[in-house]
Design brief:
The chain has 87 residues and is of the alpha+beta class. The chain has helices at 14-23, 42-52; strands at residues 29-35, 56-62, 71-77. The mean pLDDT is 86.
Length: 87
């Protein structure tokens, strides 16, 4: 399993996140959100759009901090070429 990206994509706007994802190497993993399960944000909507377009895979896991009910939402870049984004 690849390491998580050191870039804090959770602080990016949805358009900045999309640009970063399209430039990321295949297999790069990034935490795009740390929130309670099911909470909606514009960044989560962008991640779902990128997932539906085939550019990332989405997973989640519980944060390792005790007494916190947060989840880390992780995007993993697929091998789909960024040139297909314009289609």
């Amino acid at each position: 399993m690849s390491k998580l990206s050191p870039v804090d994509v959770a602080k990016m706007s949805p358009s900045e996140f999309a640009s970063y994802v399209l430039e990321a190497a295949a297999g790069e993993r990034m935490v795009y959100m740390r929130k309670p399960q099911g909470e909606y944000t514009p960044l989560k909507r962008e991640a779902l759009d990128l997932y539906e377009a085939g550019f990332i895979l989405l997973t989640q896991r519980r944060c390792e901090r005790p007494n916190e009910k947060l989840f880390e939402y992780i995007a993993t870049r697929t091998k789909k070429p960024k040139t297909l984004a314009a289609q």
